[in-house]
Amino acid sequence: MAYETVSLTKEDGVAVLTLNRPDKLNAVNMQMRKEILGILAELEADNEIRVLIVTGAGRGFSAGADINEFAAGNEDPELQQTVNQSLLAMAKAFYEFEKPVIGAINGVAAGDGAQWTLAFDLNIASDKAKFGWPATALGIL
Q1: Is the Cβ–Cβ distance between 103 and 95 less than 8 Å?
Q2: pTM of the prediction?
C-alpha cells in the first residue's frame, strides 16, 4: 500500500514504520494519524510481525503536531475536536499495541512525537536526540 506521510517495511518479523514528512520535521497531521492507525491495525493482525520499530525520516523523529491544523482548528471547533480526539487515539493505539514497539529516536521528538515515545516499550536515542513538550510552555497538558 502507498502512503503519503509514512513508509512501512517488513522483513524477518520486523516492521519499520518511518514518519516521512522530513521537510516538516515529520510534524504529525491528520493524514499521518490515519495512516499510522491503519498500519497498527494491519500489523496487529499480521502474525509474521513480531516487533515494530518507529523512526523518523530526515533529521528528526517528529516535531509534534502540525500547528497548521491547530490554527485551522481555532476557526473551526469541529475540526479542533477531531484533531484533539485523534491526538488521544494515537497515544492509546501505541500504548495498547500488543507487540513490542521500539522507538528509534534520531533527532527532535517534541509534542506528539515525545508523547508517543512514552507509550513505546523501548526507546533508543541517538546522541542528537532531543525530547521536548512545548505544550507546557503554552499551559496545555
Answers
A1: no
A2: 0.90
